[in-house]
Structure formats: C-alpha cells, structure tokens
Design goal:
The complex is a heterodimer of chains A (155) and B (112).
Chain A (H helix, E strand, L loop, with lengths): L7 E8 L5 H14 L6 H20 L7 E9 L11 E7 L26 H8 L2 E5 L4 E7 L9
Antiparallel strand pairs in A: 1-2, 2-3, 3-5, 4-5
Chain B lengths: L1 E7 L2 E10 L3 H15 L4 E12 L1 H16 L3 E5 L3 H9 L8 E2 L2 H6 L3
Parallel strand pairs in B: 2-3, 3-4, 4-5
Antiparallel strand pairs in B: 1-2
The chains are: A alpha+beta (155), B alpha/beta (112).
Chain lengths: 155, 112
C-alpha cells in the first residue's frame, strides 16, 4: 500500500518564546502518527522535540522574541542523498544564538547532578532519538528518528 | 494541565492531569508545591496516572519540590506513573529516588 507521504518537508519559523513550542510539537507528533509510527514512538519524538526547541528558545535565543527559531522536518520513503531513510524523520532546529559546545554539557546522571533542578534536556534528546549531531557551533541540532521502533530504556 | 489537591489523613494527595512541561503547567505545579510545603504540608502523594507527558522542566520542578519536602521533614511519593513518564524519569536516573506506589491508598498509608 502506498505511504501517505513521500519525501516531504515541513518548515516552521517562530519567535523565540515558550508559547511558540507547543504548536510545532503538536504538528510533528501528529505527522509521526500519520506516518504510522510504532504506537508510543510519537510521544518519544514529542519529548525530544520539546527539549530541543526549549533549548533553542531559552539558551539559544535568551527567550528574546525578536529572534527566530527555525525547525525543519523531513520525512519520506526515498533514500536519495540528503534525505532520511525510509520510515525515518529528520528534524533540524536552528537558533540565532551564540552556540554552545555540546561536549561541555555535564552528564545529568552523575553524582550530585542527579539532584539538579535543570540540565537534563540534551541527555533526553540523545536517549530518545536514534542519531543526534550538531553544526554551526551548536546553533543547529540534527535529530534522526526511526519511526518503526520504540527507544527502550536500558536497565 | 489540571492540578487537584486534597488533604487525606496526614498527607496531601495531589493529582496531575495532562502535560507537565515548560511554561504554565510547570509554573503552576511549582507554585502549588511551594504553597503546600510552606504551609507545613510536606508529606505529599502525587498521583501521575493521568499525566501523559513530563519534560526536563517538569523533572526539575519535581526535584525541587522533592528537596523542599525532604528539608521540611516530609517526603514526596509517586502513584502509578504512565509508561512514558516512567521511561523519562528512568532515562535521567531519578526514578529510583522516589517511592512509587500502585494506588493512592498504599502511598497515603505509607505515611502512617
């Protein structure tokens, strides 16, 4: 049976404020379901996306609504260069901030960090997505999600 | 998100419904917790069975409330979190910090 979509792209541009996050998360979550993702996978994608957009708004743009956050979601069935593999979603988020070094973000699972009141977002993204990389000095995050299987919790 | 709180014996029973995430819901949760704990009610059961989503901001608010309750000689115990919330808390190694109960009665009973 033909899939409902073939290599398509959704683009969002929104002002760097918290209220701009939910509509993007809602749309992409709906899209994952339309793509017949494994039940529950759409909520894992929603959580990773929520964290990445929150990072872009708060840390990237200092919640300054004069700055914009870009989110581009590519999905489809063809596997040509630059496109996600079948049944995958590629999410790219860019902010207009100063960037950061992901390697310097502390591990939230170590020592006293476990009790911290913040600092878990990036770790959740890495655990919930199948591949995560950064570009443009940390101003761009690229997240690849396989839709057909849930990410399981180790241990 | 919807929050309801009622006193049950020696503890407060809080129910969360919807999504605990960055923005209004986390602010509302933090404020409710601060008021309870400042008012001397530091023994708190949080029923999570209708909470379908918690982000890192929600986890941060939960950890802050947990620390405040402990400082006041109380505790914060969880009831029946959803599969996604369990996974979220496990992924950042905080689930095992909490006592988790299958229903309100057993959680409330644990406070004696």
């Amino acid at each position: 049976m033909a899939p409902p979509h073939e290599n398509m792209e959704l683009r969002f541009n929104f002002k760097a404020e918290i209220a701009g996050i939910a509509p993007v998360v809602q749309r992409v979550t709906g899209l994952a379901q339309e793509m017949h993702c494994e039940p529950g996978r759409e909520m894992q994608i929603a959580l990773a996306l929520q964290e990445a957009l929150a990072n872009a708004v708060i840390h990237g743009c200092d919640s300054d609504p004069s700055k914009m956050v870009e989110c581009c979601v590519t999905y489809g069935e063809n596997t040509s260069s630059g496109n996600p593999a079948p049944n995958e979603m590629l999410i790219v988020i860019r902010d207009a901030g100063a960037g950061f070094d992901p390697a310097r973000v502390p591990n939230p699972k170590v020592g006293e960090n476990v009790h911290a009141y913040h600092g878990r977002g990036l770790h959740l993204i890495r655990e919930l997505m199948d591949e995560v990389s950064f570009a443009q000095g940390g101003r761009e995050i690229r997240m690849r999600a396989v839709l057909s299987s849930l990410r399981e919790t180790a241990g | 998100m919807d929050i309801s709180v009622r006193k049950q014996g020696n503890a407060q029973l809080m129910k969360l419904r919807g999504e605990l995430k960055l923005g209004d819901s986390v602010n509302q949760f933090r404020q409710t917790m601060e008021e309870l704990i400042a008012g001397g009610d530091a023994s708190i059961v949080i029923n999570l069975e209708e909470l379908r989503f918690m982000d890192s901001s929600g986890i941060g608010a939960l950890m802050r409330s947990f620390a405040s309750a402990k400082q006041r000689g109380g505790n914060l115990k969880l009831v029946n979190p959803s599969k996604l919330v369990v996974q979220t808390l496990k992924l950042v190694s905080v689930l095992n910090l909490f006592e988790v109960y299958p229903d309100d009665a057993s959680a409330l009973g644990s406070f004696g």
